[in-house]
# Entry
Amino acid sequence: MSRRVQIPAGAVLGISALLGLGFIAFNPVLSDSTPEAGVLEPLHAAAAEEVRVETLDRGQTFGGILAQADLSPSEQHSLLLAFREQANPARMRDGTEITLRWIRGAETVRGVDVAINPDELVRLERDDFGWRSATVETPVWVDTMKVAGVIERDLWSAVVMNPELAEMPRGDRARVIDLMDRVFQWQLDFSRQIQSGDAYRLVFEREVRPDGTMRTGRILAAELVNRDQPLYAVWFDLHDDGQGGYYDLEGESLRRAFIRAPLEYRRISSVFNMNRLHPIYGDRRPHIGVDYAAPTGTPVMATSDGVVTHRGVRGGYGNLIEVRHANGFMTRYAHLNGFASSVRAGGRVSQGQVIGYVGMTGTATGPHLHYEMHRHSQPVDPLNVDIPAGDPIPDDARDRWEAEFGVRYAMLETLPGAPELRRAAADGEQNAAGTSLLVVDD
# Structure
């Protein structure tokens, strides 16, 4: 006869605990350490595709490269038709990269990629009916950089020759100078007013392509100490449409009715002078403008919104554009090599719009832009005229401005200011280009 014995629940728990402790005690592997799983040797799997990159050399054609890939004439024709849906093969430049793709082990080309510019490629792939094409945007990643420095010789050397920025392509380093110029274009003429001993701090973001070049860049916050006077700029998108602007620490707009110079960072070869010795005629006569030396073809910008009152040839000015602005202002742009196609007499132009190109037409000894400014029919010095400011941050956007300003200005304040940078330069910590820089890459 069997009998069922009931054991209290507490006793069951106690017995279970004792059994567990006993198992661990007689199992040193579990009690002392965790068993090692070991490390497997890495496995190298062959890529699913084989690729070959061809570069379009002088005299070569896209069709010729396709022929070398053993594509039949009919397939070449089909592929070129698909390519023409996205781009013109006759306009492909020397150096264009063409990537041919095969399934590993197969003999027939599976796809073709054509880099038509740094930001786009045309992707061609087989389908059941021949070839199809699509334009693919080059992927980018965004980073934020912080840079501070003292200008010991000139701004160009301080940035472009800076070894701390060596990972940036040389052209992109020059673009940082252009970004600074655009930010402070209403306050300073970088060709004339930047001097040795000035200091700067920048926080800027950039979109970077896979090859390391910069697609776009934007300064988020900046300080430029010019002749011991600090100038500040903080980016703010007032209308949240990507077309923002720059404001000082109090929210006052940096934008003015006129930008200081009609060219990006160029050398001034002659200033406003009512008693200048003329370089061609040899006598003294008024020079009622500013001459900017620049290579032929350099774009010339309208310095303010206005209406074009003259576009054509006028005596010693050569090719001349004259623009009438508000409040009695008028500007002239002379010796141009040519005019922008969108500029017509009687038409409107906007500040920063390209209206023509540097040349040496008329009375000129070399390629340069002669730029004049008149107010109420009287010539004024463009480098010293007092220009009214733009609108400040409106009250209904103040809260958003304060929040975004705080973040961007805080990033700027993490960099050393002018006194620290100057002490570092004095202590011999400047680089071979004559500038001391600190760069932090976030």
Confidence is low (pLDDT under 50) at residues 1-13, 15-21, 430-442. The first strand starts at residue 49 and ends at 55. The radius of gyration is 33 Å. The chain has three domains: 49-137, 141-255+390-441, 267-380.
